[in-house]
C-alpha cells in the first residue's frame, strides 16, 4: 500500500515515516500544502495522512481541493488541533477520520488499517484466500496454518493482489503500491518479488496474464 504523509514537523515526520515503512507501507513524505496538492494531482495513493497546520497551503484547503476533484482517497487527519470545532471542520471538509497529536502509534496504525479495509470494501482485518492468510496487524503469513516468512516487498505485492482477487494488476500498478518516489526501482523488481512469493507459497497462487500483469484468481 502506498501512503502520502503530509507533515511539516521534521521530528514527527521522521518518526512516522519510520513507523509506516516498518509496517511495510511505501510512503511519500511532503512538508507543505502546495507540495501535497501537487502530489495528489499527479500520483495515486491508498491513503493520505494529513496535518492541518501546514506552510504555503493549509491542510483543510488541500482536503477540500482533493474532494472537489471527486477523489475518494481515504484521508486521516493527524493534527494538534483538538477543539471540537476543528474536528467538525476536518470531517466536514471530507476527512474520513481524525486523530489528535500526540497520538499513540499503535492507534494510528489501527486507524490506517481500518480505513484501508473500508476503502477496499472489506470488513475482516485478515486476508484469506485458498489456504493463504495475511494478517496486516501482526504481519503473520500462513499457508494452511503453517507460518511463512515474507520480505517486506513480497508481503506488499501479495497484499495488493489478495486485496482484489480476480483483478489483474499491471507491473506499473504494483510498482505504485510498492515504491515511494525516492526508491531506486529496477526494471524487473516486481518480477523478482512475484518469484519470491511463488517460491514460498506455490506457483498457482499468483498467475501471470501475458501482456497485462498479474492476478490472484478468485
From TrEMBL:
InterPro entries: CheY-like_superfamily (IPR011006), OmpR/PhoB-type_DNA-bd (IPR001867), Sig_transdc_resp-reg_C-effctor (IPR016032), Sig_transdc_resp-reg_receiver (IPR001789), WalR-like (IPR039420), WH-like_DNA-bd_sf (IPR036388). The modification 4-aspartylphosphate is found at residue 51. Residues 124-218 bind DNA. Residues 2-116 form the Response regulatory domain. The keyword Transcription regulation applies. Pfam families: Response_reg, Trans_reg_C. CDD domains: REC_OmpR_PmrA-like, trans_reg_C. The keyword Transcription applies. Residues 124-218 form the OmpR/PhoB-type domain. Gene3D superfamilies: 3.40.50.2300, 6.10.250.690, Winged helix-like DNA-binding domain superfamily/Winged helix DNA-binding domain. Keywords: DNA-binding, Phosphoprotein, Transcription, Transcription regulation. SUPFAM superfamilies: C-terminal effector domain of the bipartite response regulators, CheY-like. PROSITE patterns: OMPR_PHOB, RESPONSE_REGULATORY. This is Response regulator. It comes from Polaromonas jejuensis.
Amino acid at each position: 500500500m502506498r501512503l502520502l504523509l503530509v507533515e511539516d514537523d521534521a521530528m514527527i515526520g521522521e518518526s512516522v515515516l519510520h513507523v509506516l515503512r516498518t509496517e511495510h507501507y511505501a510512503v511519500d513524505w511532503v512538508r507543505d500544502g502546495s507540495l501535497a496538492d501537487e502530489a495528489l494531482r499527479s500520483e495515486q495513493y491508498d491513503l493520505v495522512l494529513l496535518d492541518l497546520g501546514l506552510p504555503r497551503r493549509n491542510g483543510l484547503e488541500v482536503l477540500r481541493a482533493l474532494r472537489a476533484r471527486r477523489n475518494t482517497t481515504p484521508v486521516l487527519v493527524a493534527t494538534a488541533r483538538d477543539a471540537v470545532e476543528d474536528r467538525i471542520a476536518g470531517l466536514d471538509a471530507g476527512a474520513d477520520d481524525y486523530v489528535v497529536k500526540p497520538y499513540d502509534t499503535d492507534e494510528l496504525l489501527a486507524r490506517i488499517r481500518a480505513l484501508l479495509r473500508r476503502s477496499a470494501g472489506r470488513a475482516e482485518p485478515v486476508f484469506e484466500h485458498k489456504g493463504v492468510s495475511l494478517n496486516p496487524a501482526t504481519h503473520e503469513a500462513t499457508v494452511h496454518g503453517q507460518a511463512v516468512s515474507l520480505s517486506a516487498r513480497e508481503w506488499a505485492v501479495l497484499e495488493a493482489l489478495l486485496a482484489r482477487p480476480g483483478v489483474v494488476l499491471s507491473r506499473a500498478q504494483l510498482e505504485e503500491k510498492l515504491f515511494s518516489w525516492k526508491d531506486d526501482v529496477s526494471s524487473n523488481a516486481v518480477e523478482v518479488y512475484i518469484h519470491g512469493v511463488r517460491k514460498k507459497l506455490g506457483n498457482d497462487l499468483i498467475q501471470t496474464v501475458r501482456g497485462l500483469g498479474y492476478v490472484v484468481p478468485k
